[in-house]
């Protein structure tokens, strides 16, 4: 079936089985590889993207549900070459190790900061529940606080 | 790339001292087979940095192009441990360039730049510490000589800064030097910079792959592709010790997108137009299992038991605890660790393109050379016709030492005449993992009335770690008898105990077990360091003093472990007292020549174990990149918390459970300590292992804190308060 949606600002139409997980359409159909396959059951968060601004685990999200919606992936998180505050903070704290799960964490964090601009440690623990096997959680928590600070500064300006 | 027709002879002579001296030689020595040699091998296996065992030609490693680009072709793979950054720092230091001038890529096997050891055991930077700097320094002197020749000046008159030679108003960049040069003279290996002159080594430079990993660049094996590629899904057994048979493909082959069902080389793979279609069709293949024996976790636990299996003593000083004269009962405790999964986020897979009798394979592997050789053997083609193109790894942890996916993708590509991408799904990853083996430990000690340790014994039963590893010849198993992966960290480092010994029992299991980050270290340290703490409590001594008192020798490793123990106790303000509901636990270990001590501050919050702070003293010698050394320590601590508190596999009716994240419980953000206070000591003038040694102390440090909080000694992993 034909499904149309906006991804990273561009209108796209794909012709696939409507039950295909959005993840595979993004990765293999639209060749945006930043969104990762981790588990296929929405259990790890490696495939986290934004649909209409909210965090969604795309491996368990049938593409047909994306019809008419706005999808953002890690490739569209910043504006052009400018990094999003979350990416900037990730860089400043040197968070990634293997790096595979990191786009999912950054997407989940960006979505959380839209709802909770200045999260406490408890907010972070409750909302960021993706899996990182290199276990970079210690730096990630610092980076999330830093991202919140960068974002609030940007908003004041 | 610069060429030199005579380089082989020169290279062999100059670099021979590093090559061919890896694991192979260790086993070569053991083939004589008598016990003293076996004992030396065991001792060395715990403390020696395995030397680099690959090609040492500077030309193969460092490529400088006329456009002034410096490429470092690394045989070591980047799986998150920061190796690419560390290696670039070593090269930049001796080449006299800034780090941003160097681009690091994985060496393709067809380049001839091959590493016989692979990437693992925390050995990447450590094993290349001297050879790579020598290669870079040699390259620098080759460039200097050629620049002098081109400029018509003496080599010694030139000044070198940031990749440019200059003298009397003339200058020449590296790129200009290499332009149009056909022949190079390789000089004697130059003297290396002393530590006091380091400008790049020892700096916490941001990792060189940072930007790519923050923008989600397509750098991993699962991101790789070839034009006009098909997708495959391979059928893997859900059950252990069972055979699949009576296949019915009638539904599967009619599924949408299916191109071909390939049956070759003992596997079945569905090739389709998309990953979703390949997976969906594979799930429609019908078949039956024929089970040999019925297996469940209880039976595995009965097998993994000290006293079962082949026994080998791997450490021995004095008599057995039972034979020590004197009054008093021996103190005896048992410990266990469970089957652990790797759970690395990127599943295993490969992308292969077979054409004209040759195959290119893009794959996340820790062992490109082994992968190449296995593919060549399975396809019946020459090794030279297989080119492994390693990608960044979405986690390694020992999971990518076995790469059947590369063979399967290559065979399917040959069968369908197109490039094929073949990846496991998550269920397949869990059910067909090469697990961390379960272990059982019996610790015994005898203590004098004055509270001195008279004797101590560590007995260990484990499944395979190094045995059945493709790199190690099968002949090694009966010769070694003890699996040196399983016994890693299993020796008692307390030389002040007059009688001490460690014994290993090898147990065969009906499922694959192999390397898991730090090998035997985590489980062995949990047993030994928990037990030391118990001895301290039973004899009314401080656990810090008890350790220090029993490490008496003056060899450098023992001096270094004493130093980290002292520093960790001091920096943490270690106390036996429980303060405001929080207790401290102390533990220490030596792994592959690096020393680590940790204090965990733990409380129990709503019935759950919470690690608030970990203080670490760590000595790996020179920290090439202190920021990345810290990152590895932080990762080891959080991954260690995960293994200590949550992780375990179950086995019911020949099926391993669970088969996904969530059900396989792991540490998440909420489990990360609020503070990790790291103190680095550079107790040696070499760069030693980093990526695994800090996994030693964390589990027993947590257990020792809980003992002080609750009075209960936790002896089984994962820890339970009930």
Q: Gist?
A:
The complex is a heterodimer of chains A (157) and B (722). Chain A is of the alpha+beta class. Chain A has helices at 22-29, 85-92, 102-115, 121-127, 137-156, and strands at 2-7, 10-15, 48-51, 54-57, 70-72.
Core attributes:
heterodimer, A: about 160 residues, alpha+beta, Ubiquitin-like (UB roll), DNA polymerase, domain 1, 2 domains, five-stranded mixed sheet, 5 helices, 5 strands, B: about 725 residues, Aldehyde Oxidoreductase, domain 4, 3 domains, seven-stranded mixed sheet, 19 helices, about 30% helix, disordered N terminus
What does this protein structure show overall?
- The complex is a heterodimer of chains A (157) and B (722).
- Chain A is α+β, with helices and mostly antiparallel strands and 157 residues long.
- Chain A folds into two domains: 2-76, Roll (Ubiquitin-like (UB roll)); 85-156, DNA polymerase, domain 1 (Orthogonal Bundle), CATH 1.10.150.
- Helices cover 36% and strands 15% of the residues of chain A.
- In chain A, a hairpin with a 2-residue loop joins β3 (48-51) and β4 (54-57).
- In chain A, α2 crosses α3 and α2 (85-92) packs across α5 (137-156).
- Chain A is globular, with a radius of gyration of 15 Å.
- Chain B has 722 residues and is of the alpha+beta class.
- Chain B contains 19 helices and 26 strands.
- The interface between A and B is large, with 54 and 66 residues.
